[in-house]
Protein backbone atom coordinates (compact mmCIF):
# COMPACT_ATOMS: atom_id res chain seq x y z
CA UNK A 1 0.00 0.00 0.00
CA UNK A 2 2.83 2.43 0.85
CA UNK A 3 4.46 1.67 -2.50
CA UNK A 4 1.22 2.40 -4.33
CA UNK A 5 0.75 5.70 -2.49
CA UNK A 6 4.30 6.68 -3.40
CA UNK A 7 3.61 5.92 -7.07
CA UNK A 8 0.44 8.01 -7.00
CA UNK A 9 2.28 10.93 -5.39
CA UNK A 10 5.03 10.74 -8.00
CA UNK A 11 2.40 10.71 -10.73
CA UNK A 12 0.68 13.79 -9.33
CA UNK A 13 4.01 15.61 -9.03
CA UNK A 14 4.62 14.78 -12.69
CA UNK A 15 1.26 16.30 -13.63
CA UNK A 16 2.02 19.43 -11.62
CA UNK A 17 5.44 19.70 -13.19
CA UNK A 18 4.01 19.48 -16.69
CA UNK A 19 1.38 22.09 -15.89
CA UNK A 20 3.73 24.48 -14.16
CA UNK A 21 5.00 27.64 -15.79
CA UNK A 22 8.00 29.25 -14.18
CA UNK A 23 7.61 26.98 -11.13
CA UNK A 24 4.01 28.05 -10.48
CA UNK A 25 1.38 25.32 -10.25
CA UNK A 26 -1.45 25.64 -12.75
CA UNK A 27 -4.62 26.84 -11.07
CA UNK A 28 -7.43 24.31 -10.95
CA UNK A 29 -10.54 25.71 -12.66
CA UNK A 30 -13.70 26.27 -10.63
CA UNK A 31 -16.41 23.66 -11.07
CA UNK A 32 -18.58 25.93 -13.22
CA UNK A 33 -15.60 26.93 -15.38
CA UNK A 34 -14.37 23.38 -16.04
CA UNK A 35 -14.83 22.51 -19.71
CA UNK A 36 -15.36 26.14 -20.67
CA UNK A 37 -14.24 27.09 -24.17
CA UNK A 38 -13.62 30.71 -25.21
CA UNK A 39 -14.25 31.21 -28.94
CA UNK A 40 -12.56 34.37 -30.14
CA UNK A 41 -11.73 34.01 -33.85
CA UNK A 42 -13.80 36.93 -35.14
CA UNK A 43 -15.76 38.38 -32.21
CA UNK A 44 -13.38 41.15 -31.17
CA UNK A 45 -13.03 42.46 -34.74
CA UNK A 46 -16.84 42.57 -34.91
CA UNK A 47 -16.99 44.68 -31.74
CA UNK A 48 -18.24 41.84 -29.54
CA UNK A 49 -16.81 39.96 -26.59
CA UNK A 50 -15.64 36.39 -27.26
CA UNK A 51 -18.19 33.59 -27.04
CA UNK A 52 -18.04 31.73 -23.72
CA UNK A 53 -19.18 28.15 -24.30
CA UNK A 54 -19.97 26.00 -21.26
CA UNK A 55 -19.79 22.28 -21.95
CA UNK A 56 -21.78 21.46 -18.80
CA UNK A 57 -24.87 23.16 -20.26
CA UNK A 58 -24.72 21.23 -23.52
CA UNK A 59 -23.44 17.83 -22.42
CA UNK A 60 -26.52 17.43 -20.23
CA UNK A 61 -28.65 17.72 -23.40
CA UNK A 62 -26.60 16.27 -26.27
CA UNK A 63 -23.96 13.59 -26.77
CA UNK A 64 -20.39 14.55 -27.64
CA UNK A 65 -20.71 12.58 -30.88
CA UNK A 66 -23.66 14.63 -32.12
CA UNK A 67 -21.71 17.91 -31.90
CA UNK A 68 -18.23 16.73 -32.82
CA UNK A 69 -19.16 14.30 -35.62
CA UNK A 70 -22.57 15.19 -37.07
CA UNK A 71 -22.33 18.96 -36.59
CA UNK A 72 -18.54 18.88 -37.12
CA UNK A 73 -17.11 20.97 -34.31
CA UNK A 74 -13.36 20.46 -34.00
CA UNK A 75 -12.03 19.05 -30.73
CA UNK A 76 -9.78 22.07 -30.16
CA UNK A 77 -10.91 25.56 -29.19
CA UNK A 78 -10.98 28.08 -32.07
CA UNK A 79 -10.05 25.43 -34.64
CA UNK A 80 -13.51 25.43 -36.26
CA UNK A 81 -13.48 29.20 -36.99
CA UNK A 82 -17.24 29.67 -36.66
CA UNK A 83 -18.71 32.85 -38.12
CA UNK A 84 -22.08 34.53 -37.66
CA UNK A 85 -22.74 33.84 -41.35
CA UNK A 86 -22.21 30.09 -40.72
CA UNK A 87 -24.73 30.16 -37.87
CA UNK A 88 -27.29 32.05 -39.94
CA UNK A 89 -26.93 29.41 -42.69
CA UNK A 90 -27.76 26.68 -40.15
CA UNK A 91 -24.26 25.34 -39.58
CA UNK A 92 -22.37 24.79 -36.29
CA UNK A 93 -24.21 26.62 -33.45
CA UNK A 94 -26.95 27.52 -35.93
CA UNK A 95 -27.81 23.84 -36.38
CA UNK A 96 -29.82 24.05 -33.16
CA UNK A 97 -29.77 27.77 -32.30
CA UNK A 98 -32.07 28.83 -35.11
CA UNK A 99 -35.32 29.79 -33.39
CA UNK A 100 -37.17 26.70 -34.68
CA UNK A 101 -35.34 23.57 -33.41
CA UNK A 102 -37.14 22.26 -30.33
CA UNK A 103 -35.70 21.02 -27.05
CA UNK A 104 -38.25 19.59 -24.61
CA UNK A 105 -41.01 21.29 -26.58
CA UNK A 106 -39.45 24.76 -26.60
CA UNK A 107 -37.74 26.50 -29.51
CA UNK A 108 -34.02 27.10 -29.00
CA UNK A 109 -33.13 30.77 -29.41
CA UNK A 110 -31.45 31.82 -32.65
CA UNK A 111 -27.74 32.49 -32.15
CA UNK A 112 -27.37 35.03 -34.96
CA UNK A 113 -29.99 36.95 -36.94
CA UNK A 114 -29.42 39.20 -39.97
CA UNK A 115 -32.32 41.41 -38.82
CA UNK A 116 -30.75 42.02 -35.42
CA UNK A 117 -29.59 45.58 -34.86
CA UNK A 118 -26.07 46.07 -33.54
CA UNK A 119 -27.51 48.27 -30.80
CA UNK A 120 -29.52 45.32 -29.47
CA UNK A 121 -26.93 43.42 -27.41
CA UNK A 122 -29.25 41.51 -25.09
CA UNK A 123 -29.44 38.35 -27.18
CA UNK A 124 -25.84 38.62 -28.40
CA UNK A 125 -24.66 38.64 -24.80
CA UNK A 126 -26.27 35.28 -24.10
CA UNK A 127 -23.17 33.88 -25.83
CA UNK A 128 -20.82 36.86 -26.19
CA UNK A 129 -20.33 37.46 -22.49
CA UNK A 130 -18.77 40.87 -21.76
CA UNK A 131 -17.71 39.89 -18.24
CA UNK A 132 -18.09 37.28 -15.53
CA UNK A 133 -21.78 36.49 -15.15
CA UNK A 134 -22.90 35.80 -11.54
CA UNK A 135 -26.18 34.34 -12.83
CA UNK A 136 -24.23 31.68 -14.70
CA UNK A 137 -22.67 30.53 -11.42
CA UNK A 138 -26.08 30.38 -9.73
CA UNK A 139 -27.58 28.45 -12.65
CA UNK A 140 -24.71 25.94 -12.50
CA UNK A 141 -25.07 25.13 -8.80
CA UNK A 142 -28.86 24.92 -9.09
CA UNK A 143 -28.45 22.52 -12.02
CA UNK A 144 -25.98 20.12 -10.36
CA UNK A 145 -27.76 20.10 -6.98
CA UNK A 146 -29.52 16.75 -7.54
CA UNK A 147 -26.93 15.13 -9.83
CA UNK A 148 -24.50 12.44 -8.57
CA UNK A 149 -21.34 14.12 -7.34
CA UNK A 150 -17.71 13.70 -8.37
CA UNK A 151 -14.50 14.96 -6.72
CA UNK A 152 -13.04 16.77 -9.71
CA UNK A 153 -13.99 18.66 -12.86
CA UNK A 154 -17.58 19.91 -12.79
CA UNK A 155 -18.11 17.93 -9.55
CA UNK A 156 -20.64 15.84 -11.51
CA UNK A 157 -20.45 12.15 -12.30
CA UNK A 158 -21.94 12.48 -15.78
CA UNK A 159 -21.77 8.77 -16.50
CA UNK A 160 -23.79 7.94 -13.39
CA UNK A 161 -26.27 10.74 -14.13
CA UNK A 162 -26.91 9.17 -17.54
CA UNK A 163 -27.23 5.65 -16.07
CA UNK A 164 -29.78 6.90 -13.51
CA UNK A 165 -31.78 8.66 -16.21
CA UNK A 166 -31.28 12.13 -14.70
CA UNK A 167 -29.96 13.28 -18.05
CA UNK A 168 -30.86 11.81 -21.46
CA UNK A 169 -28.44 13.22 -24.06
CA UNK A 170 -29.87 13.45 -27.58
CA UNK A 171 -27.76 11.63 -30.19
CA UNK A 172 -29.74 12.23 -33.38
CA UNK A 173 -31.01 15.31 -35.20
CA UNK A 174 -33.35 15.03 -38.17
CA UNK A 175 -31.78 16.41 -41.33
CA UNK A 176 -28.31 16.37 -39.77
CA UNK A 177 -27.55 12.90 -38.41
CA UNK A 178 -27.37 9.71 -40.46
CA UNK A 179 -28.65 6.49 -38.93
CA UNK A 180 -25.96 3.85 -39.43
CA UNK A 181 -26.18 0.17 -38.44
CA UNK A 182 -24.72 -0.40 -34.98
CA UNK A 183 -21.29 -1.99 -34.78
CA UNK A 184 -20.60 -4.79 -32.28
CA UNK A 185 -19.26 -3.26 -29.07
CA UNK A 186 -16.01 -4.73 -27.83
CA UNK A 187 -15.92 -6.15 -24.34
CA UNK A 188 -14.07 -4.31 -21.59
CA UNK A 189 -10.35 -4.98 -21.71
CA UNK A 190 -7.31 -4.44 -19.50
CA UNK A 191 -4.49 -2.00 -20.18
CA UNK A 192 -1.35 -2.48 -18.15
CA UNK A 193 0.39 0.70 -16.92
CA UNK A 194 4.10 1.10 -17.46
CA UNK A 195 4.62 2.14 -13.82
CA UNK A 196 5.03 -0.82 -11.49
CA UNK A 197 2.51 -0.86 -8.66
CA UNK A 198 -0.23 1.09 -10.42
CA UNK A 199 -3.56 -0.74 -10.77
CA UNK A 200 -4.47 -1.87 -14.27
CA UNK A 201 -6.80 0.24 -16.41
CA UNK A 202 -10.15 -1.30 -17.32
CA UNK A 203 -11.24 0.35 -20.56
CA UNK A 204 -14.92 0.16 -21.48
CA UNK A 205 -15.97 0.72 -25.10
CA UNK A 206 -19.60 0.52 -23.99
CA UNK A 207 -19.26 3.51 -21.65
CA UNK A 208 -17.47 5.58 -24.26
CA UNK A 209 -19.73 4.75 -27.20
CA UNK A 210 -22.77 5.93 -25.22
CA UNK A 211 -21.43 9.49 -25.54
CA UNK A 212 -18.95 9.31 -28.39
CA UNK A 213 -20.00 6.60 -30.79
CA UNK A 214 -16.95 5.27 -32.62
CA UNK A 215 -16.15 8.21 -34.92
CA UNK A 216 -15.23 10.70 -32.21
CA UNK A 217 -12.18 8.65 -31.23
CA UNK A 218 -11.41 6.70 -34.42
CA UNK A 219 -9.44 7.41 -36.54
CA UNK A 220 -8.53 11.01 -35.60
CA UNK A 221 -7.49 10.35 -31.98
CA UNK A 222 -6.72 6.62 -32.06
CA UNK A 223 -5.68 5.49 -35.55
CA UNK A 224 -5.64 1.78 -34.82
CA UNK A 225 -8.70 -0.18 -33.70
CA UNK A 226 -6.79 -3.16 -32.33
CA UNK A 227 -5.68 -3.18 -28.71
CA UNK A 228 -2.03 -2.13 -28.48
CA UNK A 229 -1.75 -0.83 -32.05
CA UNK A 230 -1.52 2.81 -30.86
CA UNK A 231 1.42 3.45 -28.55
CA UNK A 232 1.11 6.28 -26.01
CA UNK A 233 2.08 7.13 -22.46
CA UNK A 234 0.77 9.18 -19.54
CA UNK A 235 3.11 11.96 -20.65
CA UNK A 236 1.23 12.07 -23.97
CA UNK A 237 -2.10 12.13 -22.14
CA UNK A 238 -0.95 14.96 -19.84
CA UNK A 239 0.04 16.86 -22.99
CA UNK A 240 -3.54 16.65 -24.26
CA UNK A 241 -3.13 13.74 -26.69
CA UNK A 242 -5.07 10.47 -26.93
CA UNK A 243 -7.22 10.14 -23.77
CA UNK A 244 -6.11 13.67 -22.86
CA UNK A 245 -8.02 15.16 -25.81
CA UNK A 246 -11.11 14.91 -23.57
CA UNK A 247 -9.93 13.96 -20.10
CA UNK A 248 -8.53 17.00 -18.35
CA UNK A 249 -10.49 19.39 -20.57
CA UNK A 250 -14.14 18.29 -20.59
CA UNK A 251 -14.39 14.67 -19.40
CA UNK A 252 -13.27 13.98 -15.81
CA UNK A 253 -9.70 15.23 -15.22
CA UNK A 254 -6.57 13.17 -14.77
CA UNK A 255 -6.48 13.77 -11.02
CA UNK A 256 -9.21 11.14 -10.70
CA UNK A 257 -6.72 8.27 -11.08
CA UNK A 258 -9.11 5.69 -9.62
CA UNK A 259 -11.70 6.31 -12.35
CA UNK A 260 -9.45 4.50 -14.85
CA UNK A 261 -6.96 2.51 -12.73
CA UNK A 262 -9.57 0.23 -11.22
CA UNK A 263 -8.23 -3.36 -11.30
CA UNK A 264 -6.58 -4.29 -7.99
CA UNK A 265 -2.86 -4.99 -8.04
CA UNK A 266 -2.15 -8.70 -7.56
Describe this structure as you would to a colleague:
- The chain is built from eight helices and seven strands.
- It has 266 residues and is of the alpha+beta class.
- The chain folds into two domains: 110 residues, Alpha-Beta Complex (Cytochrome C3), CATH 3.90.10.10; 109 residues, Alpha-Beta Complex (Cytochrome C3).
- Strands 5-6-7 form a three-stranded antiparallel sheet, with no helix packed on it. Strands 1-2 form a two-stranded antiparallel ribbon. A two-stranded antiparallel sheet has the order 3-4.
- Strand 3 and strand 4 form a beta hairpin.
- The termini are close together.
Q: CATH homologous superfamily of the largest domain - what is it?
A: Cytochrome C3
Main sheet characteristics: 3 strands, antiparallel
Uncertain segments: 4-9, 15-23
Mean pLDDT: 87
Gross morphology:
globular
Structural class, by secondary structure, is alpha+beta
Q: Total helix count?
A: 8
List the helices and strands and how they pair.
Elements: H1 2-19, E1 36-39, E2 51-54, H2 55-59, H3 64-70, H4 84-88, E3 102-103, E4 106-107, H5 134-144, H6 158-163, E5 189-191, E6 200-203, H7 205-212, H8 234-238, E7 261-263
Antiparallel strand pairs: 1-2, 3-4, 5-6, 6-7
Question: Short description, anyone?
Answer:
This protein has helices at residues 2-19, 55-59, 64-70, 84-88, 134-144, 158-163, 205-212, 234-238, and strands at 36-39, 51-54, 102-103, 106-107, 189-191, 200-203, 261-263.
